Fold:
Amino acid sequence: MTNKLKYFIGNWKMFGDLGSIKIIFRISRFLHTFKKRNKVVLCVPSTLINHFTKKIKSKNVSIGAQNCHQNKNYGAFTGSVNARMLKNAGAKYIILGHSENRLEGDTNFIIRKKIESVMKEKMNIIFCIGETIKQKNKGRTFLVLRNQIKGSLKKKFNLKNIIIAYEPIWSIGTGNIPRQVDLIKIFKFIKYECKKIFRTKSFPKVLYGGSVNEKNIRMFTSNSYIDGFLIGGSSQSSKKFIDIIKNYYK
Ligand code: PGA
Structure:
């Protein structure tokens, strides 16, 4: 049920300038000497994608984007970029459905359109789902997750290109992380639910995201369902990001 290869995906959010490439150089140098095989992706602001992909020669770090417009072609959408433009800039991955974008108006339907546009460009998707604290307290977590999955993923989608990131909204940037017993149940649910809906032979890759740091990462090692992590704040520092990877395998 668990895919052996672990993903460590950084979500820089609105952070970084051209000089921030030094963070990625340091991570790349560390990975060069690190024995375990991982997939490391840094999802950076659109302004940095092209510069970074040109400068980073090593294949051990991929560059991704954080969102895109759902329109497949150019259009009158001030301030937006679409999947094709991000691919052209060098992005290999795109985060979609992040709760911060859902707050700004991304619905399940819009996210589905975005996924379709990214699929067309044959890029990888990190599809975020997660419940609010209110929904959790009302016992609605599974219902919310099922609705988000069914509302945005079509049966015909190739799940091989989609990595699901479970990010409870109450955990993002708060320092609160779920109890591991709850997390195991949720991961099992997401994996079996997707397998059932999409009638796939294998389980999808599912990451955990929300306040992951170098101190709490060890808590997740007992959860064999986790395929990796989506890391926000702690991915903005090479030291923290490297320590997360190191400590995970300690
Ligand atoms: P955080 O963010 O690690 O800072 O909580 C995670 C995310 O928003 O993807």
The chain has one domain: 6-248. The chain has a mean pLDDT of 96. Residues 6-248 form a domain with the TIM Barrel fold (CATH 3.20.20.70). Residues 194 and 235 are 28 Å apart (CA to CA).
